[in-house]
Design a protein that fits this description.
The complex is a heterodimer of chains A (206) and B (255). Chain A is α/β, with parallel strands linked by helices. Chain A has helices at 13-21, 32-37, 49-58, 61-71, 81-84, 188-200, and strands spanning 2-5, 26-29, 40-43, 76-79, 87-90, 96-97, 102-108, 120-125, 142-147, 149-153, 158-164, 166-174, 177-180. In chain A, 26% of the residues lie in helices and 32% in strands. Chain B has one domain (5-243): TIM Barrel (Alpha-Beta Barrel), CATH 3.20.20.70. The chains are: A alpha/beta (206), B alpha/beta (255). At the A-B interface, α1, β8, β9 and α6 of A face loops of B.
């Protein structure tokens, strides 16, 4: 069973609808005990980093997720803001702290210096970087993005790339942890394939 | 690179899919779920679902229809029809919409655009503008109540952008359902006026029209009659854009 973490921010039901369509057993929850019972965790996210990080701490989910992922080695998939929350900190909301599972920080996309508008919205192609979670997805497939911030990695882990003015991290993998900046639940067949890969395989990075 | 989107527009008269001609004559095309399912298998970039009778019947687009479509379509979904408040928008989003299209209420109370944009983010708010030519051929803002002579199209479009709309859905009433080509002059003029994406609708009769719309400044192309009444598929339209050197999301191909 997959626990889909509900921080009460934005629409996370789309992820659940995609999992239902894939016939993957899941539960939308904000309860520590349910997350502890699950064998995989998805951290979706729409909204502001500061607000989400604050809710993670106040609800006690911060420690629960870290314990389940670091000590119990449960696979974790962070989507969009959920991916950013896996990192150390974000400049959105004045340097608030994330889960610290991935060494890196979150900063504003450098699109404006290239004359491009923010947020970066729409379908853009992703070079998979050989990530396991992209297994079965054609190279350079397009995924649906809606974001203004990007992850700047501070450790040498495998990542997928996208370009909007500059290259940025579209997805990463480190052992049992996966993150993606785009919305697989809104990316048609290729997005569903990613969710299905996460739900059905071990996503351990070689 | 960001892609130009090909967006089927599905019009509802409450519960059934309809297709209008010049916002008037209608043909009933059946169940929205079936129609949406076909578009889902055809791998379209986005879907717009609009209840065209909601405002004049003083009701909202059916929430169960939104939910049913969202449960089968894993792509961005924009819905509209009778949405009058931030609560209405929140409800539509909770049923699975990613964006909303507002029109009548924005004309009645323009502040609704800025309130909604602040609350949900600009990426969530599409303002739909219906344009009809008068006898002198001047473009007029049109609503379910008829031609709105109190405002100039150019001023209204500028106001929509400055109030924080994320996108404009530009419909040509005169071209609606006629399949004789978009109003390319209108597309060019409005696209140059604003820096937010303009989705154009009304008039596409073949894939070349979509390509020409994008060449005239459209960010995305809304289409309905072609998909309902001809054998052209979304992929064929994308192929046409691709051949013209315009970036589109194609299925199963390497760029």
């Amino acid at each position: 069973m997959i626990a889909v973490v509900d921080l009460g921010l934005g629409n996370v039901k789309s992820v659940c609808r995609a999992l239902s369509f894939l016939k993957v057993e899941h539960l939308l929850t904000s309860k520590s005990v349910e997350i502890a019972k699950a064998d995989r965790i998805i951290l979706p996210g729409v909204g502001n980093f500061y607000e989400a990080s604050d809710r993670l701490r106040k609800s006690g989910l911060f420690d629960v997720i870290r314990e389940n992922v670091l000590n119990l080695q449960k696979p974790l998939f962070g989507i969009c803001l959920g991916m950013q929350l896996l990192c150390d900190s974000s400049e959105e909301g004045g340097g608030s702290e994330g889960l610290g599972l991935i060494k890196g920080r979150v900063r504003k996309l450098r699109a404006e210096e290239h004359g491009l508008r923010l947020p970066h919205i729409g379908w853009n192609d992703v070079a998979s970087g050989g990530l396991n979670v992209f297994k079965g997805v054609e190279e350079n497939s397009c995924f649906y993005f809606v974001h203004s911030f990007e992850v700047e990695l501070a450790e040498p882990i495998a990542y997928a790339k996208c370009n909007y003015g500059c290259d940025f991290v579209a997805a990463f993998e480190k052992a049992n942890i996966v993150g993606c900046q785009f919305h697989p639940e809104k990316s048609q067949g290729v997005g569903l394939k990613l969710l299905s890969n996460f739900a059905r395989q071990d996503v351990k990075n070689a | 690179m960001l892609r130009h989107r090909i967006i089927p527009i599905v019009l509802l008269d409450g519960y059934s899919v309809v297709k209008t001609i010049k916002f008037d004559v209608r043909r009933n095309l059946g169940n929205p779920i079936t129609v949406a399912r076909i578009y889902n298998t055809r791998n379209v970039d986005e879907l717009i679902l609009l209840d065209i009778d909601a405002s004049k019947e003083n009701r909202k687009i059916d929430l169960f229809t939104i939910e049913d479509v969202a449960s089968e379509c894993f792509m961005p979904l924009c819905v509209g029809g009778g949405l009058k408040s931030c609560e209405d928008i929140a409800e539509a989003l909770s049923r699975g919409a990613d964006k909303v299209s507002i029109n009548s209420e924005a004309l009645r109370n323009a502040k609704f655009i800025s309130d909604a944009s602040r609350f949900f983010g600009a990426q969530c708010i599409v303002v739909s503008v219906d344009v009809k030519s008068d006898e002198q051929g001047r473009w007029k803002v049109f609503s379910h109540a008829g031609v709105d002579n109190s405002r100039e199209l150019i001023d209204w479009v500028r106001e929509i952008e400055s109030l924080g709309a994320g996108e404009i859905l530009l419909n040509s009433v005169d071209r609606d359902g006629v399949m004789a080509g978009y109003d390319f002059k209108l597309i060019e003029e409005i696209s140059e006026l604003v820096s937010i994406p303009v989705i154009v609708a009304g008039g596409a009769g073949n894939p070349g029209d979509a390509t020409k719309a994008v060449q005239n400044g459209a960010s995305a192309v809304g289409i309905s009659s072609i998909f309902h009444f001809t054998s052209y598929t979304p992929d064929e339209i994308k192929e046409d854009l691709h051949r013209a050197g315009l970036p589109v999301r194609r299925r199963g191909t390497r760029e």
